[in-house]
Automatic annotation (TrEMBL):
Organism: Veillonella criceti
Lineage: Bacteria, Bacillati, Bacillota, Negativicutes, Veillonellales
Membrane-spanning intervals of the chain: 12-33
Top-level taxon in the UniProt lineage: Bacteria
Keyword Membrane: yes
Keywords: Membrane, Transmembrane, Transmembrane helix
Name listed for the protein in its UniProt record: MotA/TolQ/ExbB proton channel family protein
Length: 72
């Protein structure tokens, strides 16, 4: 039996299961992309940012934040 035949043999209950599976995969991909985009270079921020902010060097601090990446 091929996959399509097994699907049809399962009857009407297979359609909601298929829909739920597609939604679950879509949510998983969305969460992966969201978390991947949220990763930042924390070490760069921890080392340089406090010093720049203490000396009121805001433009340089902004550049460091942009270079570190992440979702902010």
């Amino acid at each position: 039996m091929d996959l399509l035949a097994l699907f049809h043999k399962g009857g009407l209950v297979m359609y909601p299961i298929l829909l739920a599976s597609i939604i679950a995969v879509a949510i998983g991909v969305n969460r992966y992309l969201c978390y991947k985009g949220a990763v930042a270079n924390i070490e760069l921020l921890k080392e340089r940012l406090p010093e720049l902010l203490r000396h009121n060097r805001l433009e340089e601090a902004k550049v460091i934040c942009e270079e570190a990446g992440g979702s902010w």
